[in-house]
Amino acid sequence: MFRLVFGRDLPPLGADMMADGYDRDGAPYMRTLQGERVKSLEECVIADWLFYNGVAYDYERRYEFDTATDTHRQYRPDFYYPDAQLYHEHFALDADGQPPKHFANYSEGMHWKRQQHAARGTALVETTSFGLRSGQALQHLAERLGASGVELDPNPDRELPDQGAKPMPDADLIGLMRTFIAHAKSNCLTLDDMAARLRQMPEDQFKERYRRFLEIAGPVFQAWDNALADERSIDFEDMLNMAAGLLEQGHYESPYELVMADEFQDASRARTRLCRALVSQPGRHLFAVGDDWQSINRFAGADVSVMTGFREWMGHGQVLKLEQTFRCPQALCDVSSRFISRNPAQIAKAVRSAAPTMGPVLQAFQMNRREEVQDGVRQYLAKLHQQLLSGAVPQGRNGRVTVFVLGRYRADRGAVPSDWKTAFGSTMDVEFLTAHRSKGREADYVILPGMINRSFPSLRADDPVLSLAMPDGDTYPLSEERRLQALAVPG
User: Fold this and answer.
1) Which of 94, 113, 147 is the last residue of a domain?
2) Which of 5, 63, 213, 263 has the lowest tally of Cβ within 10 angstroms?
3) How many domains does the chain have?
4) Which domain holds residue 426?
5) What is the mean pLDDT of residues 421-434?
6) pLDDT of residue 343
7) How far apart are CA 382 and CA 151, in angstroms?
8) Domain boundary among 87, 121, 147
9) 270 domain-assigned
10) Does residue 115 belong to any structural domain of this protein?
11) Among 167, 169, 187, 178, CA closest to 216
């Protein structure tokens, strides 16, 4: 059920959602497994739960009585269940039964809807945003459907319509669990510890989603540890924690006067704990180099809080900031710096560029459909090719410029025209890389072809469920995706 129904986290009540698309009027919508366009992610979760359980429903079907007046449009309840002759309204209410403050006249609208059902004798079930987050709403809905003669038929393999939304892929769920387990072990957290953290989470978080994730990740976590024990083996996180433990307990004395750690922004808590233990005795020193703006390896266990909270981990020390770059012009530095600095947890820096500026440093092109992206890349390369031939823009080293096409995933490779060498190879070298692989590389021109939902940003890499295993991790929304995109922009 997690893949199909709970694959996406809910934003705070009343906050803007990351939509699947927009209608002709610019209103956002979400796409359900069954293929409808619904107005909110909460409604999408409910619709997908209904689909998973085989419950027939109509979304915003016209109410069976005429209600249109000078002050009200024709009433269309959120859901209708024909097999139960039951209407369903989902209200945006918090734990205190209050709507978001900026929802004008919302309470009056709820009262009017309730009046329609009471006056006309139609059955209504209500759920709320708080109830959906806590798990009470779906339980209540299941009970009302059951009382009306509708049996749930849960089936994770139910055939999806062609126009329906695609559920979380198996590979993404496996990767999420592996990242979760790596962070849990790095932080020496047990399943009981994480269950306790779940209970302590604020009520406005999607706790039902986190609970269901623990239900599937917990047994995997336990089975992994059992398999290691059966083989009398340890994994990498075990090795780091055991080594740090031996040092902390005085069973081993570090012989090193100076420990140097590179790429410290990608250190896990277990690695950081080991570094600290190695220099805990007087006369020992740690020299760490890192850039919290480039922390993009959370999937491998990295925890940016060890960099942003360095003094809390290591105590007082000298901090030197390297704020000059030669990679990109100042205008591009300013754009990426403003973008990443929206996260207040990032260490403040004033990046100055020594690179010259030539022409517009940032351009945006809009395609109507995903299938047009490769043609858009081709058009840009063709224009650049002509400018290089005419001398309008300078040639690069060895007579050719370098062009990176950076995708969020390897599957984005299709954005690169297959005939680029024949068409443009005399003036440029084009290379595809994932954004992660581009770290440390440079190019004269960078193309980001995947600036669309579920590409940039990825909702998997920054999944909030990881907060269960990262006690002091970065909680800013999509923080790592923000860093990854800012890293990709300079090239």
Assistant:
1) 147
2) 263
3) 2
4) 363-456
5) 93
6) 84
7) 59
8) 147
9) no
10) yes
11) 178
Q: Are the beta carbons of 56 and 44 closer than 8 angstroms?
A: no
Task: State the Cα–Cα distance between residues 129 and 137, nearest whole angstrom.
Answer: 8
Decide if 330 is inside a domain. no
| 50 in a structural domain | yes
Using CA atoms, how far apart are residues 199 and 138, in angstroms rounded to an integer? 19
Q: Is the pLDDT of residue 454 over 70?
A: no
Could you give the CA distance from residue 428 to residue 438 in angstroms, rounded to a whole number? 18
